[in-house]
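User: For my dataset I need records formatted as: sequence, then structure tokens, nothing else. Please produce one.
Assistant:
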Amino acid sequence: MNKNNYKAHLALLGANIIYGINHIVAKGVMPNKIGPSAFIFLRILGAGLLFWIIKFFIKEKVQKKDFALLAIGGLLGVATNQLLFFHGLNLTSPIDASIIITAVPVMVLIFSVFFLKEKLTSNKIIGIIIGGIGAILLIAYGNKSGGTSSVLGNIYIFLNSVSYALYLVLIKPLMKKYKPLTVISWVFLFGFIFMLPFGLPDVIKTNFYAFTLNTYLTVAFVIIGTTFLTYLLNIYALTKVSPSVNGSYIYLQPVISFFMVGIYAYFLGHNEYARDINLIKILSCFMVIIGVYLINVNNV
């Protein structure tokens, strides 16, 4: 593994650990303290401002012909992706959300073959199949085992996965042309514009006086960690590895989410999550880890 690939894989690992933690942390304040659309408004606004503060020190001009692709990136990778995910997470269980997210590598591989002419290998196909079986098993069994699952919430999460996968593939060519921070700054600006009609009404209705210290810490974690830092890590990794490798790391999120839900259920007294945990889900999580390894074995 060369030095650049090593850093890219560490970046992807870090980003997906944060994502896995976010499934349970963000759900903890929705919808009692803040609605999904209002949360996304704060998330995109806060992270977008951080990106543009840093971007102020990077003088790089974007060609007019590339703004259309940046706008599409903002629509798919920021506005649609985040709105669907948080509305889905608000309705369904954190474990279900993290499992369904594993559809992203499958979608990325399909889109990459179609748009980027990426070559299929036997390891990639086998890895996606094994990881996919693990995810399907978790979803199928999870719907029968009770807990906090929701069909509508799961559909939202799946549509979010499709949107994010297409974003990863379409934005890849711009990574070779511009600095990552330039791309992500414009993507977030366009994403904020697309999100504004959905988020602003909910923000106006939000009772910020009811926020506790835990609420503020959660919002800060989502803005700085789950959004600002993870998008930087993902977009850096896209400059070093293919979109399919990037997407494959999402297979780690169910494992991380499972352990977080276990902590909340058995150590922090959140009994509503206890029924989301069982042996079938543990075994299935090991399958998705194997899937990650097989997809990445020839790309390190």
